[in-house]
Predict the 3D structure of the following.
Amino acid sequence: MDRKVFYLSVARFIRVVGRMSTFIFLPIIFVNIYNLSLLDTGIITAAATAVMAVIQYFSGPWSDRFGRKFFLEVIPFFTAIAYFALF
């Protein structure tokens, strides 16, 4: 296996594990710390999942059109803004 492919797959695995732990603990934080109702927490989680599904669906054509480098630079910026907004 090519080393670049191996490193890319390991980085992707770490990213997915981090994302999954976020989706596990985020509802607990919303309910216990921010005192949101379960309905509000469900709506936020459903909206985040819908946005993520749309982005993943169109990510292939978008990366072909704009290039992978563009998304590798832009997406972490918006992710940081989203986490800061949650903070």
Remarks:
- The two ends are 40 Å apart (CA to CA).
